[in-house]
């Protein structure tokens, strides 16, 4: 009511209050002396009323005037009495008036600042309201839109209508729910995260998320965020997920391995075609049922069903993995006999945690190959035993007659030469030579058959030292030969006995097949070869050379390209060299020019470098 009075009316009311207060004091003191508090209270009432309505200056003047009026009344009506208490009460009235005056002044200043700020911000508030990204509505308790912004007109339509009733823009199915939310809004002051649907002017459903705040008892502001784009994105995402899910399912169906997937509740959510094929069951009978029931429908196909059940139950109970469990499937009317490797992995991703992926890998062919390999290995062992027996026979039983023939033919030549004609002696000498060559051939064949090396038995070989031993063994054959061995040859890994045999054979061949006055043999290593696990070596001579068309052929057994009359040999030496190099995982080849000489190259494993203490690193 006070806010509806003008300043003149307020001043008249204050004057009237003071007049009434003065008359009350006069009337009360006409017969007897009133108490001091009555005078103080009488003047305090108009003081409070006046200071609440006036400005700072008016309040100060009114407070001073009240003290003056009170003092006059005290002096005229309380003669002969102590004035200490009345004076204290008047000072209390003065303090009360000043306090109210200052409080009112501060209130008026706040209101003025708020009014000025509001006058400055009002244009901007309208712009913010109008151009907000989400739809903004001023609504009443019935949900009628009293004012709305551009986003609302764009979303709902009805651009020319100033107001919209709730039934005009709310989806019929959401109308009752929205009324409940409106009641809650005006009761509690706000609502948030309300999902609803609006209906546009074109009768299109628009999903929205609402939040609203009450402004007054009858008006609230409501913000509606359009979820159409989010809904479209979710729809597209769902379509993409479905498309990729179908792709993955089809891809899983093409696998040769059986895949069975269970969720965190233990229900089978997917089984591919291979599962049905392995166990002779329609996979649809497994999908959608719990794991124990699904297992009961195919576990009977296993030979050892109980062992498989225990392994599966232990893994499911402990949440652990099954890395490998071999199980056999019995043949049946709609299934083949198989050997499967079962693996089970718990799903650890947050979305599907608690589920499992079971793999059934068909290893039937692998097991068949393993069995075949075992049989072949066994057959090979038996064959090797027979070869050993054969070698024993050749070494003893077959060589014995040759030694007899060689010995008796020698006796005949030595003891009965005078009884034989010249032709007979020639025949006997040929018989001795042929027997000797046959014995050497048997020795070479036995040597070739025995070359079977295990890399685990390889040792570090100092080649310069090994070649010194070879020179000692070939001392007689190397007379008149220039043998040049490079110093500091790299150390190799291998079988020392056979590596010496390799160099001895190549050096012997270089000397044997040489027509020069001074046969020369050079043994060395290729120093600038690429760094690999092996080292190339060579044995070079200045002998008769080999035609290019025979460069591969000479490494075969019995491949002797020169007449026996000119050069001794069995034709097995280079085959032995090739076998030794191959057992050391190396290669051998020749470069040669007829009349100039030949160079035999071969590779051997490189030895590990030695540490300072002498141990190989």
Structure commentary:
This protein has helices spanning 7-28, 36-53, 56-77, 84-130, 150-156, 166-169, 175-188, 228-253, 273-279, 291-296, 305-318, 364-415, 422-449, 463-473, 496-512, 573-583, and strands at residues 135-140, 145-148, 190-199, 205-214, 219-226, 258-262, 268-271, 322-329, 338-346, 356-362, 459-461, 482-485, 492-494, 520-525, 534-541, 588-593, 597-605. By secondary structure, the chain is an alpha+beta fold. The strands form 4 sheets. Strands 2-1-5-4-3 form a 5-stranded antiparallel beta sheet. A hairpin with a 4-residue loop joins strand 1 (135-140) and strand 2. The protein is elongated, with a radius of gyration of 59 Å.
Attribute tags:
617 residues, alpha+beta, five-stranded antiparallel sheet, 16 helices, 17 strands
What share of residues are in beta strands? Answer: 15-25%
Largest sheet: 5 strands, antiparallel
SS elements, strand count: 17
Structural class: alpha+beta
Radius of gyration: 59 Å
The backbone outline, from C-alpha atoms, is elongated
Read across the widest sheet, the strand sequence of neighbours is 2-1-5-4-3
List the SSEs and their pairings.
Elements: H1 7-28, H2 36-53, H3 56-77, H4 84-130, E1 135-140, E2 145-148, H5 150-156, H6 166-169, H7 175-188, E3 190-199, E4 205-214, E5 219-226, H8 228-253, E6 258-262, E7 268-271, H9 273-279, H10 291-296, H11 305-318, E8 322-329, E9 338-346, E10 356-362, H12 364-415, H13 422-449, E11 459-461, H14 463-473, E12 482-485, E13 492-494, H15 496-512, E14 520-525, E15 534-541, H16 573-583, E16 588-593, E17 597-605
């Amino acid at each position: 009511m006070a806010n509806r009075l003008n300043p003149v009316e307020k001043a008249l009311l204050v004057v009237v209050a003071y007049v009434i207060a003065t008359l009350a004091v006069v009337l009360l003191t006409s017969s007897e002396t009133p108490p001091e508090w009555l005078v103080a209270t009488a003047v305090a009432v108009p003081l409070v009323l006046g200071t609440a309505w006036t400005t700072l200056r008016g309040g100060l003047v009114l407070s001073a005037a009240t003290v003056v009026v009170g003092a006059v009344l005290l002096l005229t009506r309380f003669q002969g009495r102590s004035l200490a208490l009345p004076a204290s009460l008047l000072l209390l009235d003065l303090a009360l008036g000043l306090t109210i005056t200052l409080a009112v002044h501060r209130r008026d200043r706040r209101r003025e600042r708020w009014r000025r700020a509001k006058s400055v911000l009002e244009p901007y508030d309208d712009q913010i309201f109008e151009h907000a990204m989400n739809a903004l509505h001023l609504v009443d308790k019935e949900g009628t839109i009293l004012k709305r912004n551009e986003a609302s007109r764009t979303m709902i339509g009805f651009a020319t209508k100033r107001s919209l009733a709730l039934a005009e823009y709310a989806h019929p199915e959401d109308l009752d729910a929205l009324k409940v939310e409106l009641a809650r809004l005006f009761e509690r002051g706000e609502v948030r995260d309300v999902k609803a649907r609006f209906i546009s002017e074109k009768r299109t459903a628009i999903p929205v998320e609402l939040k609203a705040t009450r402004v007054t008892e009858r008006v609230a502001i409501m913000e509606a965020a359009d979820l159409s784009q989010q809904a479209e994105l979710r729809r597209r995402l769902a379509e993409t997920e479905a498309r990729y899910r179908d792709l993955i399912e089809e891809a899983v169906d093409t696998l040769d391995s059986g895949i069975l997937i269970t969720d965190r509740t233990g229900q089978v959510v997917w089984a591919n075609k291979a599962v049905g094929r392995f166990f002779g069951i329609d996979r649809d009978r497994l999908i959608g049922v719990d794991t124990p029931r699904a297992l009961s429908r195919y576990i009977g196909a296993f030979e050892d069903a109980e062992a498989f059940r225990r392994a599966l139950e232990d893994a499911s109970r402990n949440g652990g993995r099954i890395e490998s469990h071999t199980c056999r499937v019995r043949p049946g009317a709609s299934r083949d006999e198989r050997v499967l490797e079962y693996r089970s992995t718990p799903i650890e991703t947050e979305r599907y945690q608690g589920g499992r992926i079971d793999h059934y890998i068909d290893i039937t062919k692998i097991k068949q190959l393993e069995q075949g390999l075992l049989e072949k290995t066994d057959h090979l062992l038996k064959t090797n035993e027979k070869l050993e027996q054969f070698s024993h026979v050749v070494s003893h039983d077959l060589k014995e007659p040759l030694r007899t023939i060689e010995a008796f033919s020698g006796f005949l030549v030595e003891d009965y030469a005078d009884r034989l004609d010249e032709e007979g002696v020639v025949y006997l000498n040929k018989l001795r030579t042929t027997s000797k060559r046959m014995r050497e051939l048997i020795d070479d064949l036995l040597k070739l058959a025995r070359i079977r090396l295990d890399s685990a038995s390889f040792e570090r070989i100092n080649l310069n030292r090994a070649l010194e031993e070879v020179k000692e063994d070939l001392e007689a054959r190397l007379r008149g030969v220039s043998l040049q061995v490079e110093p500091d040859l790299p150390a190799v890994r291998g079988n020392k006995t056979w590596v010496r045999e390799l160099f001895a054979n190549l050096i012997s061949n270089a000397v044997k097949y040489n027509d020069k006055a001074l046969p020369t043999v050079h043994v060395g290593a290729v120093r600038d070869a690429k760094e690999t696990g092996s080292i190339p070596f060579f044995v070079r001579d200045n002998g008769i050379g080999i035609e290019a068309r025979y460069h591969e052929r000479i490494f075969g057994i019995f491949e002797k390209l020169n007449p026996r009359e000119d050069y001794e040999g069995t034709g097995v030496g280079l085959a032995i060299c090739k076998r030794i190099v191959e057992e050391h995982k190396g290669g051998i080849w020749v470069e040669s020019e007829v009349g100039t000489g030949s160079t035999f190259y071969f590779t051997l494993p490189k030895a590990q470098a030695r540490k300072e203490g002498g141990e190989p690193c």
